[in-house]
Amino acid sequence: MLLNCYQQEFLEAGCDEAGRGCLAGPVFAAAVILPKDFNFEGLNDSKQLSHQQREELRPIIETQALAWAVASCDHEEIDQINILNASFLAMHRAIEKLHTQPQYLVIDGNRFKAFPAIPHSCIIKGDGKYLNIAAASILAKTHRDEYMTNLHVEFPQYNWQQNKGYPTIAHRKAVMEIGLSPFHRKTFNVRDPQLELF
């Protein structure tokens, strides 16, 4: 069972991102502050949930959280500063957008660029340990999925509605046959040498 938060002394926001491993589109991040008594059965790491479960949990999180925010870094920023720094920047943007300022941050993963004046802890696989990080993972994932689904209308040949920009075999083949869209990350290697083995 996931714990509500990492520590009890300070008002805490959980942070996570979605889309780091994609070939196209932005990286999204979310920051979520949950009530101390928040406990919703079924809330878990977004990767452990189905698309439908994530979509059902999103409005529950957004209505019951004390504060939540979602932000992103686009493909051009990712190419300029690299995906790790873009992930940190997207998290910083989400934290800045919170209408309630947290006193402590818990970050999914093992690295983070410190946010000014707010202490933090990095939690490896934190989205499977703490509800506020799990909630952030769901918001980042669902908001990014929605963005890529909308983008699919303009670029249906890459099937972003289904793959959301991740490097599936069909997505990589489409890039090799058609070329890059304006939304692809140019610094990512599409020509995977393993491709012909499948």
UniProtKB/TrEMBL annotation:
Manganese or magnesium. Binds 1 divalent metal ion per monomer in the absence of substrate. May bind a second metal ion after substrate binding. Its cofactor is Mn(2+); Mg(2+). GO terms for biological process: DNA replication, removal of RNA primer; mismatch repair. CDD domains: RNase_HII_bacteria_HII_like. The keyword Nucleus does not apply. Coiled coil: none annotated. It comes from the Bacteria. It catalyses: Endonucleolytic cleavage to 5'-phosphomonoester. GO terms for cellular component: cytoplasm; ribonuclease H2 complex. GO terms for molecular function: manganese ion binding; RNA binding; RNA-DNA hybrid ribonuclease activity. Keywords: Cytoplasm, Endonuclease, Hydrolase, Manganese, Metal-binding, Nuclease. Pfam families: RNase_HII. Residues 10-198 form the RNase H type-2 domain. Gene3D superfamilies: Ribonuclease H-like superfamily/Ribonuclease H (3.30.420.10). It is found in: Cytoplasm. HAMAP family: RNase_HII_B. Belongs to the RNase HII family. Endonuclease that specifically degrades the RNA of RNA-DNA hybrids. This is Ribonuclease HII.
